[in-house]
Design a protein that fits this description.
The protein is α+β, with helices and mostly antiparallel strands. 32% of the residues lie in helices and 20% in strands. It contains eight helices and 15 strands. The chain starts with a helix and ends in a 9-residue tail after the last strand.
Length: 359
């Protein structure tokens, strides 16, 4: 989990850049995760409700939230926490739940500074987005927790996905393996579907019954305290892949290796994308590479930097990125693979460790 020290350091970097003369009030759930480890689990009755974080110019931070939020918010890190009454289950609600935070807001200047409607909202949002690029050690450790759970789900998929199973059943099995690894129920989302080629490159699980020889794309994220993994394998259902399917995999493996070799602080995202695409181009297959080459990862998905054809961004130390080359060929099938990496001054550390194989 994020540490109190890490949250405090992120708040101080924010203040050092913004230099506010007054308390800054933040309400965006992403920002409260980043600065205070405050996260309301999506699988709860309170999923649509959050809090306010007030950061004074001297660094003191106060977190306000309604007292009905689930117990996980107790993991938050702030100098002071004020739980506001709303509904006890014994008496009627004191006010509409959305308005419980209003007195705290009014007591702290009446403005939400990371609202797009606030005069300094765009400045605050842009600054925090820039700060989030370089991950702190506690963020990397939390991302590794997500990735370990995703590794477990991928191992289950390779061992258990078979003909006669629905895509929904495959999802349930992968998610259960991730829950067991993580030690808790959480959100698992992504692509759990067969790709016949260009017409369907991904999507949520459906009642479709898997047939032998189909290519099943398993590209998903596991969320832990608001941070998330995102890596991929493609499985040939129930049999050995055809020579054409194996060629798609071999080319994608070569492409991801070529991209990973270029990951380093100071390298442009365009250069990394070009390294991936060059493998497909050399094989006369570039026209079937129709997705991005990768993207940043952390609190949201996807997030900067973006490894795409017309990128203008440059990698920095602390970026956590994915590389996810794939090919989608009608009559053969769609295939995508993906790993996650921590970018450093010297190169990159691979964070995901699942086995990439068609069978």
């Amino acid at each position: 989990m994020l540490t109190a020290e890490g949250c405090r350091a992120r708040r101080q970097r924010f203040l050092d850049r913004l230099k506010p003369s007054h308390p800054v009030v933040l309400a965006d759930p992403l920002h409260l995760r980043y600065f205070a480890n405050f996260y309301v689990d999506a699988i709860s009755s309170s999923a649509d409700f959050g809090g306010l974080l007030v950061i004074r110019p001297d660094g003191h931070a106060t977190l306000y939230h309604d007292a009905k939020l689930p117990g996980g918010v107790a993991k938050a890190h702030a100098d002071a926490v004020e739980k506001l009454p709303w509904y006890t289950g014994q008496e009627p609600e004191l006010a509409p739940r959305r308005l419980v935070l209003r007195p705290a807001l009014e007591a702290n200047g009446g403005r939400i500074h990371d609202s797009i409607a606030d005069p300094i909202g765009p400045q605050v949002i842009t600054l925090i987005s820039e700060l989030r690029r370089a991950k702190d050690p506690d963020e990397v450790e939390l991302l590794k927790t997500c990735m370990k759970a995703s590794d477990a789900g991928h191992a289950w998929g390779l061992a258990n996905i078979k003909p006669g199973m629905t895509e929904l059943a495959a999802y349930a099995g992968v998610a259960a393996a991730a829950y067991a690894s993580l030690g808790q129920f959480t959100t698992v989302y992504g692509d759990f579907t067969v790709s016949p080629g260009s017409k369907k490159r991904g999507g949520p699980p459906t009642p479709h019954v898997l047939e032998a020889g189909e290519l099943f794309i398993l590209d998903y994220s596991v969320i832990a305290q608001g941070y998330r993994s995102d890596f991929t394998n493609t499985i040939c259902v129930g049999c050995k892949p055809t020579a054409d399917q194996q060629r798609l995999m071999d080319l994608s493996l070569a492409a991801i290796a070529a991209g990973a070799k270029e990951l380093k602080a100071g390298v442009t995202c365009q250069h990394v994308y070009d390294a991936i695409r060059a493998v497909f181009a050399a094989a006369g297959m570039a026209e079937f590479f129709t997705t991005h080459g990768g993207h940043g990862l952390g609190i949201s998905h996807p997030e900067p930097p973006f490894i795409v054809r017309h990128s203008t961004e440059t990698l920095i130390a602390g970026d956590v990125v994915t590389l996810e080359p794939g090919l989608y060929v009608d009559g053969i099938g769609g295939l995508r693979i993906e790993h996650n990496y921590l970018v450093t001054e010297q190169g990159a550390e691979q964070l995901s460790n699942h086995r990439i194989a068609l069978s």
